[in-house]
Amino acid sequence: MKIQEIKLVIDNLSLEEYEKYYFEKHPRASKKPIDNPYHPTINQWMIMKRPMMNALKQKWKDFIRWFIDNQGYSNLHIEKCEMKFITYYKTNRRHDIDNSCPKFILDGFSESGFIIDDDSKHITKITMECHVDKENPRTEIEVIIRQ
């Protein structure tokens, strides 16, 4: 069995690059599309009214599609993989690991063609870790491709 690993890092530099792209594409927009280099927690988005939640999900899918394309991984169509999400928050505030579900990122991976689908046939394992890095908040995603 051949194993390949891809490491993706979403950090503040990624967000700055995306903001340039986003504001060129949407010149009338004034608000940043993505606030932090980590996925909103389920506690944040599950209490939103449906249209607001869908708008947030769409912003993240658009960002992830851009991010994957920017990394050169669009239409990779990974068939079977495991993923490890390591989130580095900017505050020492308590973070429940189960609230860090990366749903919008996974949806963006599917839509970009990076993976075939985010179902259990194609992603066989997800591991999540949370840490604090006040100087460099980010999300590191390790994708272990199994062939």
UniProtKB/TrEMBL annotation:
* Family annotation (Gene3D superfamilies): Holliday junction resolvase RusA
Q: Which domain of life is it from?
A: Bacteria
State what protein this is by name. Uncharacterized protein
